[in-house]
Amino acid sequence: MSNKKQRLFQELIKDSKDPKLIKKAYQFAEKAHRNQKRASGDDFIIHPLRTAICLKKAKLCPTTIAAGLLHDVPDDTAVTDEEIKKEFGKEIALLVEGVSKLGKIKYHGVERQAENFRKLFLAMAEDVRVIFIKLCDRLHNLKSLNYLRPDKAKRIALETIEIYAPLAYRLGIGEIKGRLEDFAFPYAFPDEYKKLLPKVKDKYKKRENYLKKLVPIIKQELKKEEIKPIQIDSRAKHYYSLYQKLKRYNDDLDKIYDLVALRIIVKNVEDCYKTLGIIHKIWKPLPGRTKDYIARPKPNGYRSLHTSISCMDNKIIEIQIRTPQMHKEAEFGIAAHWYYSEQKGLKTYIKRLVSKPPERNLYWLKQLREWQEETKKFSPDRYLESLKIDFFGQRVFVFTPKGDIIDLPKNACPVDFAYAIHTEVGNHCQEAKVNGKIARLNQELNSGDLVEIITNKKRTPSRDWLDFVKTSLAKIRIKKWFSPTEQTEKKVSLPKILSFIPIPVKKEKKLKEEKALKKGSVSLAGEKGMLTNIAKCCLPQPGDKIIGYVTKSKGATIHKIDCSNLKRLKEKWPQKIIKATWD
Ligand code: MN
Q: For 311, which DSSP code?
């Protein structure tokens, strides 16, 4: 057992750019997890070691790798976040904390929530390196699914396919996406997997052998044009993505041309196009099947040339042509960008790519434009949904007590949340609890917060809410409560603020309930019959110079123009001051 630990550690530290840090993190984690076992019977430390090796393979920096080694320490041992911070500094501590934060998100398997979950992940992981750690963590956890109860294994597998794999794809890490899906597939859809496997196993082998015969022909033709391929190999399609594609092609395996594709890697873009031309000279391309992802990369940044050709014996095969840089990017996504332009640092790169608004980020904008092109056929709803992910920085994602996710604009508050749940919940919301603690109704919500609304049938909306709610839904509902009929809404001649004041005739019932309200003999901004009451602080008499202050439920309070109380109110809420005259 300890041999395995040692062997993995050696693999991890080999050629490391910061062996001291890696060793320190390893020893720290090893000590913290000592005597803990995995479901597989392995020492626990094997798991963080595997996670760290995965991060190393994905070309992430030593800081991330160290955080990968430590990722389960705060959750599973007595060591606190503080101690990690003291020992390894703020950056690593934040990464570790981020990973354990993501681990606490509950997945309820509701399909419509999948997109929100992905956005939640992105929003919560302020540093995308956190998601890399989480993905590598998940990848290794999938390998021990067979030790878990079938229902638990299935839940984890589905969560992987619906949340983690699309996230990996979104970040352009094709390699990890394919592996996540293939590990999860047999547990998520066992029957489908059993059906597919025997059908394709044989085919994969046959295709591979067939492609091998093509390699010398291609090499020879390229040589004539003085192109030296760096690598020609075949790649088999991942099982899960094949399963997905088969569903679209009526299960007809013969229509899947890229079951096994031939991959040619050449030194630069020019050679890519030249190679494509040479291939098309030898074998006829299928019309409409040549795809130039170099000129038009996929939204996740994938670049390559793809073509399907009709080969020897009329067999159709797919060929992919790309440069080594494009190849790395396809495997490791944004991490590869960092790898190739190290001076910028991963953090800066990712920040530019992920957190800045698109207009300040040309690369992102370019991607977005491509994406818009691709999503043109989507329904407006779906388009908006998929576009939103780019603005996730402007959104917060909070949980209902049942675990559903509500997507709100940044700075939204419990009242927004209440109206997002239901108008009635909003109209009668009395109190809010955020993460179990009583919160102000105007408290700013953060992604991942669990929000609970306590309603009271007697409680009704307050006009003050309009000052702090962020969603237009809440605004509309609150206004509607105060002027329920269309007629009152249409009374546009009133100054804007007046339209929020209930007009007594329409609210007779309410008037009876609230004795404090009385119809004044005062006009507000020239309008008669508005709801007013006399301020108790200065008790203005007819003839006094007066001014109105709009309150949340009693209409306008009439003050003397020189009232000191009013002065204070005026400074604070000048927008609530309204002209008033005696009738
Ligand atoms: Mn873990």
A: -
